[in-house]
């Protein structure tokens, strides 16, 4: 079964950007997506049903309602969507999830904004960010003055499968690749993604003071999910260099 069930029919969107928050290296996309949902008080717009998604139900603090672990949130005023996931996606399920979402992408005038962490040992420097794209997404990244990659690489995991489908179908998409901690949740990398990637691409202003101030709290809250991904057989979304000459 592959279906996206819209819960809020009265939400009107024009040509929204959708920020993808599937768990990956440093949980960068997950942290950024969760922050956007909270900062803009976004509406739970739709549930994602797909055989590739673990059959679990989730609930949240202060809310008695159960929901699917992968959901879409919406902000009508900002013409913004966020794909939020509370579970990792197994590598063998990545292509199926891509197929599940691809049909909806074809029916909805949405520009997906994918996020991938590039494993990098932490130092005092601000994490580097660059953008790649397809179907016109690369032009949008250039217009937003986001840096080009400085080496050849690939993007794997669920995000890689979604990007592969976008390339195959000629669908517009952008992917933000940011240096991130390969072992622990990385709120600083998520901040860079939001300020240097999401903001210029969407022309929105996103408050991140709370994200910076609560970095340790966020890191601790996401630690269990990060450990599950490291201990299990999930191939988390990540970018990695392809060095042809070594």
From TrEMBL:
The lineage of its organism: Archaea, Methanobacteriati, Methanobacteriota, Stenosarchaea group, Halobacteria. Residues 223-246 are annotated as: Disordered. SUPFAM superfamilies: Cgl1923-like. This is ATP-grasp superfamily enzyme. It comes from Halogeometricum pallidum JCM 14848.
